[in-house]
Amino acid sequence: MTTRESSDEAYVVRLCNRLLGETALTQHRFDWLLGDPGAGGRQARLAVDAYWPGRQLVVEYRELQHDQPTPHFDKPDQLTISGVHRGEQRALYDARRDREIPAHGLRLIVIRPADLDSDGQGRLRRNEAADLAALRRLLPRASDEHRVIDAFRTWLVTQGWTSVAPADRWTDLEAVRGHERLICEAKGRTSEKGVDTDIAYGQLLRRMTNQAAHIHYALVVPSSHLETAARVPAPVRALLRVQVYGVEEDGQVTRLAG
Predict the structure, then answer these.
(1) Residue 217 pairs with which residues in a beta bridge?
(2) pLDDT tier at 138, thresholds 50, 70, 90
(3) Which residues pair with 108 in a beta bridge?
(4) Less CB within 10 Å around the terminal CB: N or C of the chain?
């Protein structure tokens, strides 16, 4: 029988601890992250897999049952306090974590079996060398780009968007609002404003694999880089459905006209 300490989740958290040089608070509960009301109206606090307070970082390890129907875990014949079966409730609570954690100023990283060395059933092979290399790419570093991403994600929530797992793992941020989808590329402060902004535009162009009108693209940069981003004319940006946003030092977000 698999215990939490021997689970893939615990293995991933231990590797993250090694890379970050700090020990996470596991199964941490925030006062503002709540489940649906149960009997008597009480709302239980939802746990997160790992939280590093000093880094304001939360990591969630989501196994296959979080992304696809799994009867063993979903128990479709049993309704939860949310009035839906366990699989639907899991999706509701995952979406709540995705929304509330960034809205409270924390960085959220979601890791899935496919991000690491796993088999077809989503079980990790526990190839530490390969998994550590993958986690080095996935875990955030202290950089201005991450400041820009975090501020923009928080702002998106205030505009009715919900952050979702990107379809392309190299996309910085992806969000949905109703039928709309927004695919974002972000850059932080750099001494090579022109070069890095041009690279960001090129990265967005590579993401344009679907011409559906409901898909939009965003270039998100420090406000000091907006003048450089504006070198691509507004009519061209409109044709490509690219919106440009600037992030101030205090986290305020502005949209480039046009």
Answers:
(1) 183, 242
(2) confident
(3) 58
(4) N
Give the separation between CA 177 and CA 184, rounded to whole angstroms: 14
* Distance of alpha carbon 110 from alpha carbon 138, whole angstroms: 9
Between the alpha carbon of residue 228 and those of residues 16, 94, 225, the distances in Å are 36, 37, 5
Distance CA 73, CA 209 (A): 34
Domains for the chain: give ranges and CATH numbers.
Answer: 4-138 (3.40.960), 144-255 (3.40.1350.10)
- pTM of the predicted structure, to 2 decimals: 0.53
Long-range contacts of 162-165 (CB under 8 A, 24+ apart): 162/95, 162/98, 162/99, 163/98, 163/99, 163/102, 163/108, 164/98, 165/110, 165/112
pLDDT digits (tens, 9 = 90+) for 15-46: 999 988 889 999 999 999 998 887 677 889 99
Confidence of residue 75 (pLDDT cuts 50, 70, 90): low
DSSP string, 177-240: ETTEEEEEEE----S-HHHHHHHHHHHHHHH-----TTEEEEEEEEGGGHHHHTTS-HHHHHHH
pLDDT above 70: residue 160 = yes
Strand partners, 106: none
What is the 8-class DSSP label of residue 167?
S
